[in-house]
What we know:
Blueprint: H1 3-15, H2 27-30, H3 34-49, H4 51-61, H5 71-86, H6 91-100, H7 102-105, H8 109-132, H9 136-140, H10 144-153, H11 158-166, E1 171-175, H12 182-191, E2 196-198, E3 205-208, E4 225-227, H13 230-238, E5 246-250, H14 256-264, E6 270-275, H15 278-291, E7 296-299, H16 305-308, E8 314-320, H17 335-338, H18 343-358, E9 362-372, H19 381-390, E10 394-397, E11 405-406, E12 411-413, E13 423-430
Helix pairs in contact: 1-3, 1-5, 3-5, 4-5, 4-8, 5-6, 5-8, 6-8, 10-11, 13-14, 18-19
Amino acid sequence: MNPRLAAARALAAVLSGKASLGGSLPPQLDRVEPRDRALAQDLAFGAARWQPRLAALAERLLQKPFKATDKDVEALLLVGLYQLFYTRIPAHAAIGETVGCVDKLKKPWAKGLLNAVLRNAQRQGETIFAELERDPAARTAHPRWLQKALKANWPEHWEAVCAANNAHPPLILRVNRRHGSRDAYLAELQQVGIAAEPCAFSRDGIRLLEAQDVKTLPGFAEGRVSVQDEAAQLAADLLELAPGQRVLDACCAPGGKTCHLLEAEPGLAEVVAVDLEETRLARVRENLARLQLQATLIAADGRNTGAWWDGKPFQRILLDAPCSATGVIRRHPDIKLTRKAEDIPALAQLQGELLDALWPTLEVGGVLVYATCSTLPQENSDNIAAFLARTPGARELGIHGPYGLKQPHGRQLLAQENGHDGFYYAKLIKIAASPRG
């Protein structure tokens, strides 16, 4: 399959609300010849990353918007515009190859339209972009609801956050403490000519200065290192793990944090890892197997503790709650297209329900770490404030790390170019059992 057509079909599925670009490659990209797959993925992800800006340009160039049944043509236009303004592909090739894909869509009327719009964009695009600089949503390539929310909540940081969201994410490794130190692994990378540096905040983190195929990294197959963003690596140390503890990792997929807990404290009595669907636990099993670690995996709704909890209390709980994922947009740029403002209250409610349901499974004196990859206080600090107000036996513990911004409750990490993702942490201790646990 032509990589431009594959990218457009993957993007059209996102625009239609039928798919996402996250996780494994979408089927439309997986069917591309291996030699063209990298190009197809770059075109799909790049067009999604800059869609708010490209769509504003297209709106200025089109006489009328596309019909809902023509999302494939719209996506193909965005892929063409992305090539013109954000790649080194020659303009004639970008236009010619993109227009040539129309034949496969069986919409011959679109051929002339795309050709005219793309050639017009080549002539007028930079002028139109200059005019769009006055619109912060178009300038920052963020949907308007999110651009406004970031500006309202982070007035001193929002533009830097948007820039980080639009940047290509760094490749971050987590060194397995069971197999040696970070310093030793850094020296080994240097010996094989791979440039890297230690992360600033995670004691296990390494940032590669150039992307690598992880399968070529020393010891990757043997489980000596894993891929995990620095912000996510902070969870293990925040839990203050100790031998003999029973730990719950709620909403555990794909298992990066599950494995890190077991690496960080080999003497744990048990790690119980829960996620909603059996299919989501497949990745957790793969990670555990590669790292030669063991955990008790349960497919269940974390809120329905009666269906999966055996009644034995946990000394530690990590609740990595489902969220808007607004802190990891640079890794999943289609979040700009799929997430809506009206999603946030429902997510906040789900997060509160998980907190309420899991709290009774924590023993008195135990610690719960609440985490999200969101940058929105409604899912984070506001949520913890509401939980503390309705839970007499809960108290907050301070997080005094050198990272992030102190909040009314918890600590917020904002996405940084060449640094960590956006993440939030709060740390709670159970000082007494409440009527519900």
